[in-house]
Amino acid sequence: xxxxxxxxxxxxxxxxxxxxxxxxxxxxxxxxxxxxxxxxxxxxxxxxxxxxxxxxxxxxxxxxxxxxxxxxxxxxxxxxxxxxxxxxxxxxxxxxxxxxxxxxxxxxxxxxxxxxxxxxxxxxxxxxxxxxxxxxxxxxxxxxxxxxxxxxxxxxxxxxxxxxxxxxxxxxxxxxxxxxxxxxxxxxxxxxxxxxxxxxxxxxxxxxxxxxxxxxxxxxxxxxxxxxxxxxxxxxxxxxxxxxxxxxxxxxxxxxxxxxxxxxxxxxxxxxxxxxxxxxxxxxxxxxxxxxxxxxxxxxxxxxxxxxxxxxxxxxxxxxxxxxxxxxxxxxxxxxxxxxxxxxxxxxxxxxxxxxxxxxxxxxxxxxxxxxxxxxxxxxxxxxxxxxxxxxxxxxxxxxxxxxxxxxxxxxxxxxxxxxxxxxxxxxxxxxxxxxxxxxxxxxxxxxxxxxxxxxxxxxxxxxxx
Length: 466
Ligand code: F6P
Prior knowledge:
The protein is 43% helix and 19% strand. It contains 16 helices and 16 strands. Strand 12, helix 11 (308-328) and strand 13 form a beta-alpha-beta unit. It is an alpha/beta fold.
């Protein structure tokens, strides 16, 4: 079997014991790597005064991690800049927040070149290279320039936006052209594949050679949808772990006679938390009888503090959560708990289990694995209800959730009401369909489908297009 080299901006192999607070992407990549021998390459998360390309190697629970430090300017221009101020808002349909700055673009290109130069000596003849996410779109091009002919795949974890949005990005052609230096480009959903193909047809006069095979910019690339899943078996174990059981008991005790509504998201503006808070406020406003019957817990660890838009949203959410509690609290009851702390995965599993409603309402999300974890944590005999944004990638698979428009606090409030009054037989019926999907289309299925397709691509004869 070929060795697998996974490349992503952050490298954080979890132990598999549920101790970390890492997100679904890290869990998925670690699961992929444990199966195939290989390594995980990326940024160490640290800075150095001058880039040296020196690798730090670490072996963590069956996964070899190779990381490299970056300069401060790299972090500003590539990570905070092009990745998180340009591509992230654009790909999440926030063109109002998208910053176009030439220095960001240059930093993005420079860091991708640096990553390629550092990674190149580690690549052996039969290795398969699997690159992840929007930070690293030009990486294959840089590797090809260094003579790498190996199979290289790319997977985008965030949405690929509509053609009309992509063309607002200065240098969009160059970015998409770089995707043709991969052998396989994977997206989360068929909708993102379609949007990508539309771009290729309209902007690059692309030609479809066969289903999923595209020719443009003098090169060919295979394109497909590979919806990512969770490690459902591992999550089922976490739910039964002592910490999960303890957290479930704690949450059950502090919501006695009440229903818990839970949201767990990193504090990103793309998660539409303001509208979610307002949706909860609507519920309390429209249904006074339910006021003392519910408690909403929003866990939102802070993220990307170097980006102003994140500081602003944080201030607005602080004010809004205070307002809701000020308006509805009583001597012995407050409806809302808003917590900016990180929790371990086993603790989250317990919190999900105690919650009657899982509330997941991003404006856009590549997939949103929290929704799948919420489903996997439920008691089959008395499951909770998932309220999910119709614009999350997961909505395609989890169609038995209550699907809402995340821009509408009214719709969110109504869906919360419907979830809270839903009878057990309907909860069980909906949950069974959801759980069936979460189990069947899990992380192993995702990884195997992607790696199998990448392995079947013919190896290039020359690194660069002739
Ligand atoms: O998991 C969601 C996600 O947006 C990934 O698509 C992305 O790689 C990651 O978060 C980046 O997070 P951070 O900026 O904290 O490294």
